[in-house]
């Protein structure tokens, strides 16, 4: 089969690798001038580490199949994401765990923490929005400290106007475990993510800096299967209007110190601080040797056409719009397949992308 893959991100790369193993010929075209999509990393010699150019990417999964799969392409280090929160000049352990509860309330044991939380929460069996959900799980004090301001900046909307989904990913623990994720496997690839994508694409014909939308019919000509990983609304020329996305702006600075903040990720939860987090990339690679460090301030921003679509914003309106696009996409199947965070309009993590791509390729195999 001749396969055309639009987009050289993780979804496209896994598909290319799997389909090439079956003997199919894969041509991969990519709009940006590099492969890897948003997991693109590049080595910064001054700081002795890889830069996560489009924001922090920490690989984590509960699936042994997906973990073993990724480990075929890279060795992973033992990085565990342990975020700190800066709020009004104070620093807190995060996600909320017993140490956070000690810092905020002075409680020292799981039992005391449980009692303190029980006294604080506002019971609600059917929370109508993120604020109500948070107040029913962690109470208003913790909600205001950690969630309200950050979420307002991240999504450009007050948590009262948002569904609770996005925060449900965050654990709340009454132990001192401050791991950001509950998954069994976690790490950062030694050598960066771009090297993984390169290996996955080995054997494919890859062209970067080309625009599929400029000549869709031309690119698709002769392809038995088209795997499209770009935004689904762009594929249809936004015929029903644009889907809602959230974008990001990154400000990178090389700082003359070997360690700027002592951690890879520090979240800033005050609404008055314009950025949401500061990343210090050398901590991802666990190498603090160099006398220079690279830090990135992450600023969420509204998305307009032409910006990178970082987060799909799923709400009732965008859900309905997406359904219309998907209804137009369905009849194109099986020749045209829509996949990945933008093709499926889902807030996927990397392991979910890999899982979905493997499932699709299993399906192609039949
Ligand atoms: N969140 C928050 N405060 C924080 C971190 C996260 O309120 O300090 C909320 C926010 O709504 C965010 C969601 O939790 O969008 C998910 O956070 P996560 O760090 O998983 O998001 P990502 O890394 O995908 O941007």
From TrEMBL:
Residue ranges constituting the UDP-galactopyranose mutase C-terminal domain according to the UniProt record: 146-347
Top-level taxon: Bacteria
One MF term in the entry's GO annotations: UDP-galactopyranose mutase activity
Protein family per UniProt: Belongs to the UDP-galactopyranose/dTDP-fucopyranose mutase family.
Any GO CC annotation of this UniProt entry: cytosol
Keyword Repressor part of the UniProt annotation: no
Organism per entry: Caballeronia choica
SUPFAM superfamilies associated with the record: FAD-linked reductases, C-terminal domain, Nucleotide-binding domain
Keywords: FAD, Flavoprotein, Isomerase
Organism classification: Bacteria, Pseudomonadati, Pseudomonadota, Betaproteobacteria, Burkholderiales
Cofactor list: FAD
Pfam families according to UniProt: GLF (PF03275), NAD_binding_8 (PF13450)
Protein name: UDP-galactopyranose mutase
